[in-house]
Amino acid sequence: MTDRSVVVGRDGRAKAYRPLPDADRAAALASGLAAYERGDFFEAHEDLEPAWMGTDERAERALLQGLIKVAAAYVHDVRGNPTGIGRNLEGARALLIEAAEEGPAVNIARLDIDALVAAIDLRLADLAAHPDGPNLPPPILQRSAS
Question: Is there a contact between 77 and 134 (Cβ–Cβ < 8 Å)?
C-alpha cells in the first residue's frame, strides 16, 4: 500500500502531499496569483501552498512550487534579505524550467513560463550587480497566449 501523504520529488526527497479536489486547487491557485499581482507576497505564498501540496503530478508540483518560491523571494525583499531573494529565485528558476520541460499541458496557471524565467534571470543578474538589494521590482506574471 502506498502512503499518499508524501510524493517523492525528482530530487528523491519526500514532499508533503495532501490531496485536494481540482476545484479547490484551482481556487487556491487563483487566490495566490491575485495576491502576488497585488504585491502581497506572503499571502501569495500561503495561498499557493495548498494547490502545490494538493496534487501528486510532478510537473504541476514543480510549477506551483516555483511560483511559491518567486513569492517567497519577495517576502525576503520586504524583510531586507537579498540573500533570501537570490536563493528563492534560483530555486524557482530550476523548478519552472522543470515544469516547462513537461510542456503546456502542465501549465494550469496559464503563465508564460519562458518570460518568467527570463525575468528571474534579469533579477538574479541585478542582485549580482547590487548585492545590498535589488533595483528591479518583482517579475510580472504574464499569461501565455495558449
Answer: yes
DSSP states of 33-56 as a string?
A: HHHHHTT-HHHHHHHHHHHHHT--
Which cell is 43 given? 499571502
pTM of the model: 0.87
Neighbours of 145 (CB within 10 A): 6
Q: What is the dihedral of CA 123, 117, 33, 4, to 10 degrees?
A: -120
Of residues 26, 65, 71, 27, the one with CA closest to residue 49: 65
SS3 (DSSP) at 143 = strand
Q: Helix 58-78 vs helix 82-101: angle between axes, to the nearest 10 degrees?
A: 160
Spatial distance between the Cα atoms of 76 and 88, rounded to a whole number of angstroms: 9
Q: Which three cell numbers mark 77? A: 525583499
Per residue in 69-101, pLDDT (tens digit) is 999 999 999 999 999 999 999 999 999 999 988
Q: Which of 93, 96, 89 is nearest to 126 (CA)?
A: 89
Residue 31, H or E segment = helix 22-37
> What is the DSSP secondary structure assignment for residue 29, as one 8-state letter?
H
State the residue for C-alpha cell 518570460: 115
How far, in Å, CA of 144 to CA of 80, rounded?
32
